[in-house]
Amino acid sequence: MVVPKVSEMLLLYQPIDEGLNTPYQTHSTVAEWVKKEGFRPITPKIHRYNSIILTFTLSFYTSKLTKTSHYTPYQQKLYDEVKRLKEVEGLGYRRISYLIYEKGYRGIRSNSVLRNNDIYSIYKKGKIREERINREFKNVVSDIVVYEY
Length: 149
What we know:
Blueprint: H1 6-10, E1 13-15, H2 30-37, E2 39-41, E3 52-59, H3 73-88, H4 93-102, H5 116-133, E4 140-148
Antiparallel strand pairs: 1-2, 3-4
Helix pairs in contact: 3-5, 4-5
């Protein structure tokens, strides 16, 4: 069975206008038109159903079902600081390395000074990680079937 769209269903109705021979009259709002004119069905009878059952398939993908925070709090704080200095302040990697050193940040494994290539790696891999976690997927609704009883 083909289910009509709402726009097609509205075409099944004409306005009731007792005073004029024209089917339409000018109104400022749709609500005012409905109050004054009302709806009269053109079709001889309207179907009444005891129940209508709608079945469909919803498919969706997400990247939020697994653990998304594999950074330690120190790593996340370091990445946030590097990202702020790069994107907001507009600094280069050497200058960021120097400022990070002054703030007391050190390498995670060896407690060494973070050089400019380390800062670049932190920034680049952090951006890739953010894009992977925050990516969007399309939801798909398919196999829509309406049963009427």
